[in-house]
């Protein structure tokens, strides 16, 4: 069972308290009704699903109930970091060489 | 009286404390502290089981958890019959009853042993080849026979009467294994004051110190040192010592699962003790000190009872005081078996000969054995064991061939070397590395905050192991908590050192031979099987494993994996690391379902939610149905009524007079704040800004893809306050959906969401008499049609308590939903019930609710929709705000597929024969005479007998349904095809006049 740090509660809590909510940093278009079919497809259906580092949303559903973002490595299943919803994608990850 | 093979003066058990037990109905006497294995061996019993495939007689291979052969059934009573218990692990208690498995009619004469004679049929992969022809025979002939013959042991057929406990624990340092290394690590960590947990699978700590007779630590016997050290640890407040506790799984971020066997060793555990306790431990650092497991020699008939690991025989002697024979042969490829021979010889047991594969080994143990007068044969091999139910001889040959000599023996001790137990390290996702010099896999790259010490790390020798472990324990504590201890490192005065040995088949069982030289005892895999698998094209060790089932039995190949790998590598002509090791997976040893399930069974399996009126409904004889976690009243049968009669009566009574229905389970969410209306505009398809305070609207919620996600009536209590209802099952996900958008997409909106499902009990009063029933109890609300029209909400009091009174209808009749604080739910229900009685009202359940709403064509999300239905498909286009510029799903609704012609649309169906009720889920076709497979154009979503219509009614999703009004369609069923007519969805009161009736 993973330990996940909630950036709002500021502590590590067991995975059971959380629920994954899919890929992060996919913003809903402000004028969504005007989106082309292709753009809507990209926004709603297409996900990166890479091997390695992923940016994903989690909700501390059995805790503070806040949504937040996490960086996780799908190979090692390790959380690199977590940060609050609305904060930009981190430019540099902790421990990254570049 | 001592059993025949109990050696006086040997072992650590108090011989005065006897325990009687039975095996296959025969009574025996053992000693307290024995395992079932040591007690049977003390009585000269080696034959304890039959093998899985060939039904070969089997005895004890080991003295520990790695045991592949000695699996027995322990019977406590009618319900407690535990199969596949390793006799080497089961502690003896007075009155223990054990039975052998896998034999019929008896252990000594087993009919299934014909498989051994017919073994050419059952070689590797026989399943895939032998039973392929004729095709029909698999299902009718082979499979039933194989299923009857297969399987290990017999599972109990009654519910498990025991209970199982569970604990979560946290510590800085978790030490897995309580041998010399584990104890040293635990001491070092404990002295710093950090929280330490140390666990060992045995009843007593000490690991190999149980048999290593020469070990001396801190000036005392090694085993005595271990007991003293554990006693010291036990009294420390920061240390938890767990014996009989197996770490079975190593999970992410140092989360380790352990099972403690709490009472399997007790004569009468009593109800207050759990049988087992599951420990889920989160540790900052883990020290793995799991030791090593001795390997057997792979030679012909190496499975005969009496042939066992040298260390096992030594454990039985030095710990339990039991000799495994009187005239013992030894077959080895390393030094450690010599120590066993020496200990036995000193205890007065004859050692017939030591056969050593090595050409000219030298060392102190060899000198000592020679000095004791034991015959030693270098460069020779045991090519076969004689005897059947018990080994009677060993045939010895020069290892490169030559004259054969048969030596009579009653036991053979074997040692091919030691395999580091890297199971838990590997489970932690660490990568093992092959040491070419010592021919073993040892921990290589670590993936988690753990460290391996001692024999499991490939560290040879007691002194080196203790030194390494003590340093690792201190380091782990320091890394976890920055603490440093002041204790003294244990000093090893004397200890043994074994390493090296051999892997793979011994001479006489090598390439070209077909003898039964077992690699995996539990799954009956021989060296020949593994070579055959390679010859048949299995070139990956993962394929070899699955084709032969080597290492796939309940012992997970603890003794067999390395031999199997070496034989495959030799056959492939590749070095071992290129062939690779199979993956180690949890559990390390079998874990009972009980310990995983713990208390979560029966009534505690899943939470049950009951509404405020549950007790009242039960007292009225209601039949309940499960809806999610809720228990909902399904129908209220009167004496002599079946379900149909009750539902028919309830349906008619509601439309004629009135009915009371508990609607409390519907989800309720309060949406509050200055931007509440804006938020509602975005989350629902309908317009909300202009909804007046005190009015209600039926709302539809979509997903972004345009499909219906949920629906419900929403009341506006104030400009900044909405009372939103959801479907019963949808409540949690609707709340999650709303929170998601509020927190992440529309965080600028000043809105607060609160789940109020359980705060308000909801009593629906529906029917022409509904207002007459409620009005006398209500204060402060004008309930006239002018003041309170259909789809309005008022706040006031009922029976003196606050209410949110909705005028709304899920039946098509004049109707109200009385919301009261849940604590008053039952009292208000009873008051309404008493009023209702004056007007001939009935209580009704969910079934009647379903029928009444279907008569009106009201949909149920999740029944009439399935996640691919748009508002237009469901005939609800009117609920989508045409002037709105944004709401969740607005873009999805214009996707090409969603606006295409010919989509499935919700329509009504009337069967041509009004008495026939369609089956929900039944498929619909346009032409019943077409060829199979027919083109299915839709399916029935809801179908009921409607007593109010005196006929059956149904709703269905049908392609282009609204263009087919009046058409005849067909529902093919097993008993014939049913003709139906496509109709509108409203079967009762099409004009909706009864809402004000």
SSE inventory with pairings:
The complex is a heterodimer of chains A (98) and B (997).
Chain A: E1 3-6, E2 11-14, E3 19-23, H1 37-44, E4 53-59, E5 67-73, E6 78-84
Antiparallel strand pairs in A: 1-2, 3-4, 4-5, 5-6
Chain B: E1 18-23, E2 26-31, H1 36-42, E3 49-50, E4 57-58, E5 71-75, E6 81-86, E7 96-100, H2 114-117, H3 126-130, H4 135-149, E8 164-176, H5 180-190, E9 196-199, E10 216-217, E11 220-221, H6 222-234, E12 239-242, E13 245-251, E14 255-261, E15 276-288, E16 292-295, E17 307-309, H7 310-318, E18 327-332, H8 336-346, E19 350-356, H9 364-371, E20 376-378, E21 380-387, E22 391-398, E23 405-408, E24 411-415, E25 417-420, H10 423-427, E26 431-435, E27 440-445, E28 450-452, H11 462-481, E29 492-494, E30 518-520, E31 525-526, H12 527-535, H13 541-548, H14 561-572, H15 576-579, H16 593-597, E32 609-610, H17 614-619, E33 623-627, E34 630-635, H18 643-656, E35 659-662, E36 667-672, H19 676-683, E37 696-702, E38 708-718, E39 721-726, H20 731-745, E40 752-755, E41 760-766, H21 770-774, E42 778-779, E43 792-798, E44 801-807, E45 815-821, H22 825-838, E46 842-843, H23 846-855, H24 896-899, E47 904-911, E48 923-925, E49 936-946, E50 951-959, E51 968-973, E52 976-983
Parallel strand pairs in B: 1-7, 8-9, 8-15, 9-12, 15-28, 17-24, 18-19, 18-24, 19-20, 32-34, 35-46
Antiparallel strand pairs in B: 1-2, 3-4, 5-6, 5-7, 10-11, 10-29, 13-14, 14-15, 16-25, 21-22, 22-23, 26-27, 30-31, 33-34, 35-41, 36-39, 36-40, 37-38, 38-39, 41-45, 42-43, 43-44, 44-45, 47-50, 47-52, 48-49, 49-50, 51-52
Helix pairs in contact in B: 5-6, 5-11, 7-8, 8-9, 12-13, 12-14, 18-23
Output the keywords.
heterodimer, A: 98 residues, mainly beta, four-stranded antiparallel sheet, B: 997 residues, alpha+beta, Ubiquitin-like (UB roll), FAD/NAD(P)-binding domain, seven-stranded mixed sheet, 29% strand
Q: Tell me, rounded to a whole number, the average pLDDT of chain B.
A: 94
End-to-end separation of chain B: 96 Å
The arrangement of helices and strands of chain A along the chain is EEEHEEE
Q: Which CATH architecture of the largest domain in chain B would you pick?
A: 3-Layer(bba) Sandwich
CATH architecture classification name of chain A = 2-Layer Sandwich
Helix-strand category of chain B:
alpha+beta
Q: Quick one: how many beta strands of chain B?
A: 52
Task: Give the C-level CATH assignment of the largest domain in chain B.
Answer: Alpha Beta
Strand composition percent of chain A: 25-35%
Strand content of chain B: 25-35%
Kindly give the count of domains of chain A. Answer: 1
């Amino acid at each position: 069972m993973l330990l996940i740090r909630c950036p709002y509660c500021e502590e590590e809590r067991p995975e059971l308290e959380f629920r994954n909510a899919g890929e992060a940093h996919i913003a809903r278009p402000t004028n969504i009704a005007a989106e082309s079919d292709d753009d809507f497809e990209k926004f709603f259906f297409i996900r990166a699903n890479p091997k390695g580092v992923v940016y994903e949303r989690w909700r501390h559903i059995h805790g503070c109930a806040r949504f937040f973002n996490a960086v996780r490595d799908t190979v090692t299943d390790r959380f690199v970091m977590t940060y609050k919803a609305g904060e930009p994608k981190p430019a540099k990850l902790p421990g990254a060489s570049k | 009286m001592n059993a025949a093979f109990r050696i006086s003066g040997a072992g650590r058990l108090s011989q005065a404390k006897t325990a009687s037990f039975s095996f296959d109905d025969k009574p025996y006497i053992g000693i307290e502290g024995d395992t079932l294995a040591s007690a049977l061996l003390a009585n000269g019993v080696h034959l304890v089981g039959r093998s899985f495939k060939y039904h070969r007689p089997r005895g004890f291979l080991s003295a520990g958890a790695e045991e592949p052969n000695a699996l027995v059934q322990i019977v406590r009573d009618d319900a407690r019959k535990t199969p596949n218990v390793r006799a080497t692990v089961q502690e003896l208690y007075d009155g223990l009853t054990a039975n052998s498995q896998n034999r019929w009619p008896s252990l000594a004469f087993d009919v299934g042993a014909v498989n051994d004679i017919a073994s050419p049929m059952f070689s590797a992969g026989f399943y895939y080849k032998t039973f392929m022809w004729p095709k029909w025979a698999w299902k009718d002939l082979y499979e039933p026979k194989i299923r009857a013959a297969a399987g290990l042991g017999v599972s109990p057929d009654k519910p498990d009467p025991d209970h199982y406990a569970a604990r979560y624990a946290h510590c800085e340092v978790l030490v897995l294994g309580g041998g010399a290394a584990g104890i040293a690590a635990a001491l070092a960590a404990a002295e710093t004051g950090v929280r330490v947990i140390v666990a060992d699978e045995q009843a007593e700590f000490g690991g190999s110190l149980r048999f290593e007779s020469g070990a001396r630590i801190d000036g005392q016997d090694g085993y005595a040192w271990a007991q003293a050290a554990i006693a010291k640890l036990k009294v420390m407040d920061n240390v938890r010592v767990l014996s009989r506790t197996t770490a079975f799984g190593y999970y992410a971020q140092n989360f380790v699962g352990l099972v403690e066997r709490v009472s399997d060793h007790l004569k009468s555990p009593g109800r207050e003790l759990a049988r087992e306790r599951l420990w889920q431990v989160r540790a900052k650092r883990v020290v793995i000190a799991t030791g090593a497991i001795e390997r057997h020699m792979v030679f012909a008939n190496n499975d005969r009872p009496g042939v066992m690991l040298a260390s096992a025989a030594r454990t039985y002697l030095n710990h339990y005081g039991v000799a495994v024979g009187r005239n013992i042969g030894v077959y080895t490829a390393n030094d450690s078996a010599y120590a066993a021979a020496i200990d036995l010889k000193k205890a007065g047991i004859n050692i017939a000969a030591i056969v050593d594969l090595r050409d000219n080994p030298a060392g102190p143990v060899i000198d000592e054995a020679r000095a004791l007068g034991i015959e030693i044969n270098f460069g020779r091999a045991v090519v076969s064991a004689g005897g059947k139910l018990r080994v009677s001889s060993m045939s010895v040959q020069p290892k490169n061939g030559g004259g054969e000599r048969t030596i009579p023996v009653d036991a053979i001790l074997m040692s091919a070397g030691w395999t580091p137990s890297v199971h838990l390290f590997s489970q932690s996702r660490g990568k093992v590395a092959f040491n070419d010099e010592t021919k073993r896999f040892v921990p290589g790259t670590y993936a988690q905050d753990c460290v391996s010490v001692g024999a499991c790390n490939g560290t040879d020798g007691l002194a080196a192991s203790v030194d390494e472990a003590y340093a690792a324990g201190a380091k782990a504590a320091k890394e976890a908590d920055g603490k440093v201890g002041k204790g003294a490192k244990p000093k090893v005065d004397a200890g043994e050192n074994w390493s090296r040995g051999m892997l793979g088949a011994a001479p006489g069982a090598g390439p070209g031979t077909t003898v039964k030289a077992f690699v995996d005892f539990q799954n009956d895999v021989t060296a020949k099987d593994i070579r055959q698998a390679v010859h048949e094209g299995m070139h990956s060790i993962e394929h070899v494993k699955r084709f032969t089932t080597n290492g796939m039995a309940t012992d997970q190949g603890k003794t067999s994996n390395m031999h199997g790998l070496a034989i495959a590598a030799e056959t492939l002509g590749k070095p071992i690391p290129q062939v690779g090791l199979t993956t180690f997976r949890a559990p390390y040893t079998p874990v009972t379902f009980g310990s995983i399930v713990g208390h979560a069974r029966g009534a505690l399996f899943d939470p049950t939610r009951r509404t405020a009126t549950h007790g009242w409904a039960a007292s009225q004889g209601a039949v309940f149905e499960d809806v999610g976690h809720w228990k909902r009243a399904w129908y209220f049968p009167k004496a002599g009524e079946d379900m149909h009669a009750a539902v028919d009566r309830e349906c008619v009574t509601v439309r004629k007079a009135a009915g009371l229905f508990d609607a409390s389970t519907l989800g309720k969410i309060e949406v509050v704040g200055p931007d509440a209306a804006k938020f509602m505009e975005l989350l629902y398809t309908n317009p909300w800004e202009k909804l007046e305070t005190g009015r209600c609207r039926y709302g539809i919620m979509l997903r972004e893809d345009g499909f219906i996600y949920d629906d419900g009536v929403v009341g506006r209590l104030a400009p900044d306050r909405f009372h939103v209802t959801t479907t019963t099952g949808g409540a949690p996900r609707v709340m999650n959906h709303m929170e998601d958008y509020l927190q992440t997409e529309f965080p600028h909106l000043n809105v607060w969401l609160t789940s109020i499902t359980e705060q308000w009990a909801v009593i629906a009063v529906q029917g022409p008499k509904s207002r007459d029933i409620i009005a006398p109890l209500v204060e402060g609300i004008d309930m006239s049609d002018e003041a309170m029209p259909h789809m309005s909400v008022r706040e006031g009091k009922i029976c003196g308590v606050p209410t949110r009174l909705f005028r709304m209808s899920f039946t098509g009749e004049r109707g109200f939903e009385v919301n009261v604080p849940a604590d008053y739910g039952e009292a208000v229900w009873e008051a309404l019930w008493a009023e209702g009685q004056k007007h001939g009202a009935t209580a009704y359940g969910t079934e009647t609710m379903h029928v009444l709403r279907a008569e009106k064509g009201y949909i149920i999300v999740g029944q009439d929709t399935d996640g691919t239905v748009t508002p237009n498909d469901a005939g609800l286009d009117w609920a989508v705000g045409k002037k709105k510029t944004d709401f969740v799903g607005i873009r999805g609704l214009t996707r090409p597929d969603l606006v295409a012609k010919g989509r499935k649309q919700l329509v009504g169906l009337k069967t041509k024969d009004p008495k026939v009720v369609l089956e929900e889920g039944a498929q619909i076709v346009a032409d019943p005479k077409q060829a199979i497979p027919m083109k299915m154009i839709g399916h029935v979503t809801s179908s009921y007998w409607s007593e109010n219509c005196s006929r059956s009614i149904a709703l269905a999703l049908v392609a282009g349904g609204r263009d087919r009004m009046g058409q005849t369609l067909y529902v093919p069923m097993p008993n014939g095809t049913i003709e139906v007519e496509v109709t509108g969805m409203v079967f009762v009161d099409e004009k909706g006049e009864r809402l004000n009736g």
